[in-house]
């Protein structure tokens, strides 16, 4: 059995309880060495076999999984953040299907969620944006024609851009026609790690600031009005708005008891 596990964004405590348990039980761990915090490997048991997939091809990864399966061993394939976001685990799952090897997936805290936590912001502010676009600028992997940053920008939604901080100035130029050069932008480098850095600015100056900080990778770009302070209060906690769990405001002091 192979368990795909989301390692979380970096902080050792931001892996799920289930993910940690699987790491503790694994006979073989294959981890994405370019981004996964290697200290997570210390959760592994004595004698666990460890492979760094950053130095391996897909075939080599599959060969390790196949060998482990033949020996009746349990494998954890540790992906950074959550595997479903730029994790390239689909091709591994499809190959395991062809090989008749069973697997499951344990989700993780994606870096875009850790970035919001570090920024202390909410992506979905009423009156600002109710949509989050996760995307990237085309690089070695192309982005389909209908998903260019320029066209996505037209929605003026909250945008979180992966894998693109090395092209910060091009990203800003793509977004500025729709958001305006004064739109707030932030770059979060190594969200949740000890050496995390946050750079705040506007589309106009964020490129320069990021360059000054020497940030070239392992960072997310966040753009949109959610970074500002102008928004409407949520209906969820609005006293004049009743819902299933709170029928009117009389009597209630707003506290909960077990
Ligand atoms: N599956 C991962 C993303 C893998 S793609 C996830 O859910 O987060 C790799 C990209 O993710 C990096 O180029 C960077 O843009 C982003 N990333 C991963 N970890 C990060 C972190 N701790 N802080 C900021 N960005 C991170």
Automatic annotation (TrEMBL):
Record domain Tetrapyrrole methylase: where: 1-206
Pathway this chain belongs to: Cofactor biosynthesis; adenosylcobalamin biosynthesis
GO molecular function: precorrin-4 C11-methyltransferase activity
SUPFAM superfamilies according to UniProt: Tetrapyrrole methylase
Keywords: Cobalamin biosynthesis, Methyltransferase, S-adenosyl-L-methionine, Transferase
Gene Ontology terms: biological process: cobalamin biosynthetic process; methylation
NCBIfam families assigned to the protein according to its UniProt record, in alphabetical order: cobM_cbiF (TIGR01465)
Protein name, as recorded: Precorrin-4 C(11)-methyltransferase
């Amino acid at each position: 059995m192979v368990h795909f596990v989301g390692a979380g964004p970096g902080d050792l405590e931001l892996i799920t309880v289930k993910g940690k348990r699987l790491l503790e039980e694994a006979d073989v761990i294959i981890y994405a060495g370019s981004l996964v915090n290697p200290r997570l490997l210390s959760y592994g048991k004595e004698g666990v076999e460890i492979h760094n997939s950053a130095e391996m091809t897909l075939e080599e990864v599959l060969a390790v999984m196949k060998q482990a399966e033949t020996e009746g061993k349990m494998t954890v394939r540790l992906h950074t953040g959550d595997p479903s976001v730029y994790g390239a685990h689909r091709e591994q799952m499809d190959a395991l299907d062809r090989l008749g090897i069973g697997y499951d997936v344990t989700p993780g805290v994606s870096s875009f969620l850790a970035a919001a936590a570090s920024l202390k912001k909410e992506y979905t502010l009423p009156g600002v944006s109710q949509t989050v676009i996760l995307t990237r600028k085309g690089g070695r992997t192309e982005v389909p024609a209908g998903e260019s940053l320029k066209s996505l920008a037209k929605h003026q939604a909250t945008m979180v851009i992966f894998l693109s901080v090395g092209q910060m100035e091009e990203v800003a130029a793509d977004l500025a026609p729709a958001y305006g050069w004064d739109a707030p932008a932030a770059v979060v480098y190594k969200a949740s790690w000890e050496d995390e850095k946050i750079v705040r600015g506007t589309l106009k100056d964020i490129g320069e600031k990021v360059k000054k900080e020497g940030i070239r990778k392992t960072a997310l770009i966040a753009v949109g009005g959610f970074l500002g302070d102008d928004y409407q209060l949520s209906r969820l906690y609005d006293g004049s708005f009743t819902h299933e769990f709170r029928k009117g405001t009389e009597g209630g002091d707003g506290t909960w008891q077990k």
